[in-house]
UniProtKB/TrEMBL annotation:
The lineage of its organism: Bacteria, Bacillati, Cyanobacteriota, Cyanophyceae, Nodosilineales. This is Uncharacterized protein. It comes from Vasconcelosia minhoensis LEGE 07310.
Length: 86
């Protein structure tokens, strides 16, 4: 089934079922990434997910923190401006 075929069905879901779908997808993607977000025993699933996310290191990259990227973007802007003035 194509993703585009799922959208109309998902749009018809109740708010609660959409949240359940988000939860299902989060667990599925986490499992594919090698993370186990399923709570042990009777622990609150939301608390377990928050604890696991808090212990996960996230890497955020921005071109603003990389001087070579800043220069490359600047060069592209200058070239685009020159091309539009030509």
């Amino acid at each position: 089934m194509l993703l585009s075929e799922l959208f109309p069905t998902v749009a018809q879901l109740s708010h609660q079922d959409k949240l359940r779908l988000i939860h299902f997808l989060l667990l599925a993607v986490a499992k594919e990434e090698g993370c186990n977000l399923k709570p042990p025993g009777k622990a609150n699933p939301a608390d377990v997910v928050l604890q696991q996310l808090a212990s996960t290191e996230a890497v955020v990259w921005s071109p603003q923190a990389d001087s070579a990227s800043v220069q490359a973007l600047s060069d592209l802007l200058v070239a685009a401006k020159e091309a539009s003035n030509a």
